[in-house]
Design a protein that fits this description.
It is a single chain. The protein is an alpha/beta fold. Helices cover 29% and strands 18% of the residues. It has helices spanning 29-35, 53-60, 80-99, 117-128, 142-150, 170-177, 192-201, 264-267, and strands spanning 14-18, 40-45, 70-73, 104-108, 134-137, 161-165, 182-186, 208-212, 220-222, 237-242. The longest helix has 20 residues, at 80-99. The radius of gyration is 23 Å and the shape is elongated.
C-alpha cells in the first residue's frame, strides 16, 4: 500500500545561493540554475538603496536582475538593539515572500556556510515558521580564492589551517601561530598595523600575503605586506600567514590498533 502523499508546503523554499568572493566565473552551475529558476531574488545591503556587493557579482556575470528583486538591510553595527530590529525586519520581509508560495534565492558573496549573513537569516525565518525548507548552495570561499590568486597552498600533506576573524586580537593570533601551519585572518582592516607588528616580531612578514576584494575588478594582492603599514584597506580583505618554522608534534599514522585480546591461557 502506497503511503499517503504529503500536502505541499504553503511556503516557498529559502535558498542561499553562494556566488563566490567576486569573480562571476566562480558561480557554480547549481547556483546559476537557482538564479534562473524563477525564484524571487533577495540580496543584502548595508543601508537602504545602497549598492549590494553580492548583487554586483551576479550582474557582472551577465544575469539580469528580476524586476521584483528585494533588498534586505543588514546594517554594519554592533548595536544589539539595532541589529535585532534589522534581523526581525529582514525575516518578516522574507517570510512575506515565502508565504506567497515562491522560492526565495538569497544572494550570498563567498560561501553561504562561512561567516555568512544567510545562516542568521535562515535561523530567524525558521523561528517564525519551522516548516520552511532551507537549501544552501555551497560556493568558493574568499580564502580559497585568495590562496589561488596568491599562488600559495593553504595546506599540504599533514599541515594544519585555522580561519579566524582578525578581531580576536594579536594575543590570540600570536598563540595560534604556534598551533597551525597557516592562519587565515579575515576582516583584517581594523587591526592591520597591529598584526603587521606581530608578524615582524615573529619574522613572518616574508611568508604572509595580503589579498583585497579577491575576484573583483579592484582585486589587489600584496606580498610585501610591510608596505601596507598606515594604509586604509578595504573591509573585504584578508591575510594569509604561513609559519614554516612551527614545531609539530608526532603524527599517528593509520588507524589505532585494537587492544590485543587476552588469550585463554592468560585468563586461566
Amino acid at each position: 500500500m502506497n503511503a499517503p502523499a504529503l500536502p505541499p508546503s504553503r511556503f516557498g523554499r529559502l535558498i542561499g545561493v553562494s556566488l563566490g568572493p567576486g569573480d562571476p566565473d566562480l558561480i557554480t552551475r547549481r547556483g546559476w540554475r537557482a538564479l534562473q529558476s524563477g525564484a524571487r531574488w533577495a540580496y543584502p545591503v548595508k543601508r537602504a538603496e545602497e549598492a549590494s556587493y553580492a548583487l554586483d557579482i551576479a550582474c557582472r556575470g551577465g544575469l539580469d536582475v528580476p524586476h521584483d528583486a528585494v533588498e534586505l538591510v543588514f546594517p554594519m553595527t554592533r548595536d544589539a538593539v539595532a541589529l535585532a530590529k534589522a534581523w526581525a525586519r529582514a525575516a518578516a520581509q522574507t517570510m512575506q515572500l515565502l508565504a506567497e508560495g515562491s522560492d526565495v534565492a538569497f544572494l550570498v558573496e563567498g560561501d553561504a556556510s562561512t561567516y555568512s549573513t544567510f545562516r542568521h537569516l535562515a535561523r530567524a525565518v525558521r523561528e517564525l515558521a519551522p516548516e520552511v525548507e532551507v537549501e544552501t548552495i555551497p560556493g568558493v570561499s574568499s580564502f580559497a580564492a585568495a590562496a589561488a590568486v596568491a599562488d600559495v597552498a593553504l595546506a599540504e600533506e599533514d599541515e594544519t589551517v585555522a580561519v579566524i576573524p582578525a578581531a580576536y586580537g594579536t594575543t590570540v593570533i600570536d598563540h595560534l601561530l604556534d598551533e597551525f601551519d597557516t592562519l587565515v585572518l579575515m576582516k583584517v582592516k581594523p587591526l592591520l598595523d597591529e598584526v603587521l607588528d606581530l608578524l615582524e616580531r615573529r619574522e613572518l612578514l616574508a611568508t604572509s600575503c595580503f589579498i583585497e576584494k579577491v575576484g573583483a575588478p579592484e582585486q589587489r594582492v600584496v606580498h610585501d605586506v610591510a608596505s601596507l603599514r598606515g594604509e586604509k584597506v578595504n573591509y573585504l580583505s584578508l591575510l594569509l600567514v604561513q609559519n614554516p618554522k612551527r614545531a609539530r608534534g608526532e603524527l599517528r599514522r593509520g588507524c589505532r590498533k585494537r587492544a590485543q585480546q587476552p588469550t585463554a591461557e592468560a585468563l586461566s
